[in-house]
Fold this sequence. Notes:
41% of the residues lie in helices and 12% in strands. It contains 43 helices and 35 strands. Residues 1-106 and 220-258 have low confidence and may be disordered.
Amino acid sequence: MASCKSAGEAVRDRFHLPSIPSGERLRRALLALSQPVSQFVSSAASPSLPSPTPKRFSSLASLRAPLPLPAVLSRSPPSASSSAAPLPVLFRGLSSKMAAAPAAPQSRGRRDKLLSIEEAIQARWARENPYEVDAPLDAANAEKKKYFCSFPYPYMNGKLHLGHGFTLCRAEFQARFQRMQGKNILWPLGLHCTGMPILACADKLKREIAMRKAEQDCGENGEKREHVESAENNSAEQQNGEEDAKKKKSKVAAKTGNAKTQWEIMLGMGIPEAEIAAFADAQHWLRYFPPLAKRDVTRMGFGIDWRRSFVTTDVNPFYDAFIRWQFNTLMKRGKLKFGMRATILSRREKQACADHDRASGEGVGPQEYTVVKLFLQGEKMREAPVPQHQPLVQLLEAVKAYGAKKVSLVAATLRPETMYGQTNCYVLPEGKYGLYLAFTNPKKSLDKAEEGDGGAQAAESEEEFETLMTREEALSTCTEVFICSERSALNMAYQGWLPMQAAEDPDALPVPHCLGTVDGMNLIGLPLTAPNATYPTIYALPMLTISMNKGTGVVMSVPSDAPDDYMALQDIKNKPDFFKDRYGVLPEWVGPFEPVAIIDIPDLGALPAVTLCKEKKVASQKDTQKLQEIKEEVYKKGFYDGVLLVGPCAGQKVADAKTVIRDQLIERKEALRYFEPEKPVVARSGDECVVAFMHQWYLDYGEEKWRETVEAYINSEQFQTFSPQVLHQFKHVVGWLREWACSRSYGLGTYLPWTKDSSRPVLIESLSDSTIYMAYYAIAHLLQGNDMYGQAKGPLGIAVEQLTDEVFDYVFAQTDDLPKGSTIPAEHLKRMRNEFEYWYPLDLRVSGKDLIFNHLTFSLYSHAAIWPHRPDLWPRAFVCNGHIMVDAQKMSKSLGNFISIEDGIKEFTADAMRVALADAGDTTDDANFQRETANGTIMRLYLLEQFANEAVSGALPLRTGRYSDADRLFLNEIVTCTQEAKEAYEGFQYREALKKGLYEMHTRRDQYRLLCGEDHMHKDMVVTWLKTQCQTLAPIAPHICEHIWSEILKEPSLIVSSAWPTFPEHAQDPVLHRQFLLLLASVEDFRRTKDKAVQMLSGGKKKGQQPRPADQAAPALTHAVVYVAKEYPPLQQQVLTLLQKAPIHKGEDGAWCAGKEYMDIVKNDEGINALDKNAKKEAMAFASFQMRDELKAYGRSALDLRLPFDELNLLQSHQRYLQASLGLTEIVFLPSDEAHPKDDSPNRKLAKPGKPSIFFYVG
């Protein structure tokens, strides 16, 4: 059996850590335990922020060696004396889940050569700086077109991965393509650190270190261990420690359950174990990951202007000043408000948990219900006691000493207007229900928003998220008891309805006061008083499909309008013995209760659920599909068309009466407004979120005039998405998006300006400060001094203190007046204004589709607010894509298919990765990165470089002189591929651009080589092909193209600065293109015909034919006759004439296509209708073939009655090519109306224009 490495050895091998003897490990661990946790953090991190960042990469070092980074990022393991060194020992057990790294791959020369080419090319780009472009200052160049593209800055809590690379590529390809159209390009990239995730991870790591240290430092009874300094005792201590570790679960593991600890996560991210402790300082993340992101993006070959890059948060004072100006402007314009709002809350962080702060549940918002109190009838319970109620009775008896309390089952509903039709309620027999002390009057309520100074003053008050009370206080204060699920109680507690008790464990969170729990079985049969119900008493009955994670676990039953309720009630009525034996259901709880008519719906009547269940023959409550269909129909028609039959609102439409009835119930203290997350939401800190009523600064998205402005812009021609589906999503989101909480108390970022110096400074939420930062790119390079941290002045020498709101107002076109009293020279102010006005608006933003629901829509709102009278400055295009998969599987570390950009470049090279990402997909469906494609591209690009070398050096035999027919056909194909690739780039169809600009270019070259045969290819054609190939592929694979262009073809300028290939007018000839395609298609058709003929000669599978004996070879088919038709048969000519009247157009893929109109044109023609059945069928089949297949291949010319060239002459001129391709010694060509003496088959009758037929025979 092969020996296995320990987990610790595997980790050391993976991260190249030195091996440490076991005795030395223990000595270090004990030494570490004697130090305070803060020393681990402070000693591993540099004392000041930020560290100096490297200047522009002057060259690309070996992929196996890191680029020069700040000192804190050094990969060198610490010395034994370093206080950070013992930390890996403390967490040695946590690394046991890390799998051993795979064996090093065998040497791959082709890949390594491409990597060396990429390194050299990137070094040249770094020297010549082609991507650093400023706005023109002179009038002569001011009119030069520009293109400004961007990508949502990536979050710096880890290294960049393939998903980042995929979306980045979609902007990168367009930037390079637009540069080749002669435009100035601005393609910058910032790095995002704002928000909760980094700080939450750092604090989590800090807690883990503290807990592990405390665990190691104390014995089982909490006594302090004595530190052993002598190495002689190490062995025994180590053995005992390992045995203890097996017996006891650590506090870290106990508190995180099966989830990974932050330490394990950092190991999985490839952080050397000796460096992990430094990440307990949140600022260390900001120093560590941004330089790595810059390194990886540079190695990927992206043409970024790094002068304009920045790190967010107040770490960068210039960016911080810009965000403060943005929010001051929004405040002045009334877009910011303050008030109590229902908000998704992270309980651990005690702040709103927005999409960016979530580990799961992105896009989920609060769902509002009406919770109705179903009051327990105590006297009726005592009059008719039921044994299964005893656990509940005992719990209630225990609180009598604290006064009478109303006890109710609380049921959540979306339809309070239907309460008149209640016949019972349902509970889950196996469910766990708590008895929670509750207030009659809540401690919180949703209130009216305050604006301006009023909001700022209100924000000064301290926020109390929980109403904390002792049990004694809660029993004395609360006048009600709610029976419901634990999850709903937790939500109600944060909405002011339930008091909470503090946990004894400082790391645990408070919980509602629960008197005890009972099973749903103990609630079945409870007599209840239901508000607005027709029946004075209803009972709780069992329902098996209730979810305890949705609503309160108690469901009201209105069988007249709810098909599920009706069928559940019918099931109980139809099986009384079963439900009595199983759940103790008595007949009197069910029998007297019939559906009550409460709402009349046109066409469905006053009992719509009953009617439809009978009509559709629903068998039971298990017939879920039918019930769902009925539910949707009843609810939709009921809400919009239904009219109430009972109550004060009788005669009113349900849509008008719903809110009125709800408010009446709430006013009578019989109901309450209740919110919970639409779906589970988990914060990055690990806790499941709730909906809380909390004071928030929020952006008033959805305000009528603001929303209408954004809607009008989305529907205008100025805004593009290049996808009808994406445009529809934007319209949908703007339709429902409302108030967005933008303030936080925990995390990193910029403070709201008016709170910064207050007693309660408030941070701006990460999705709110990232809406117009694209404008900051325009001036960042003038302010920051080529330093992403903004610690040095830029070329204009402006200090951050000089950047007043008035200065930003001028720079960003809020006013044309220079700021009064500014100490910034006027020429510098005008320079910044010029940069902004030249580059803005943003021409393209590429993003994942998930950001449609927040960031991208927020950006449109913010641009409309900051530049309300300048829609010409709003974003021009948003292009969205799906997520990335790897080999058709979701990319995941658990599946072993997670690819970072760093690792992907090492494995595939940058260009091969870029090609595979271009090939992955262009729609909002999930894209598929295929390793096979990336690996195949390595070979393809390597051979391309070899071909270029051979062609230029003379190793490849080429001819010169006159151009042949094959040359002209090939040149036309080069022009065709180039034009089609251009159209694909313009439409963001990168897979199609790759197909035309790489794959088909290679195919056409190989086909041209075959067409030339022994004559060899022409040198001019090969050089033209090489140049064009480099230019059409340069946006996707720039390194290899730059290498061939500059180093082999010796072009004087960089290919990244070259123009898109141009050809003389009318160089693209559709006739020549069709000739070329006809030759290729004919060879394929002829080969298939020959294969069949050979099979027949060999004794094929024809019925009754005997197979040829094994020792008798089939005669070789060495001769052939090709038949060419000059015109179509009369019937087909008739059909083509009709088809020429049909409308045709180019589809999304650029191919010609037709609608269904052509079928009606042919069907309704008198001449076609006069044909017999078989001829008519033939005509329709021919029409379908021409409009489906031929039209796509040949365009409009597919509908011509004759070919626009001499087909017979074309085939004859390429006789040698056809003979060589088919392995023939002789081939002759005849018109289809002439027979060949060797041919007695019907083959010649199969020929039609553009589709010659062939007959093979033995010579």
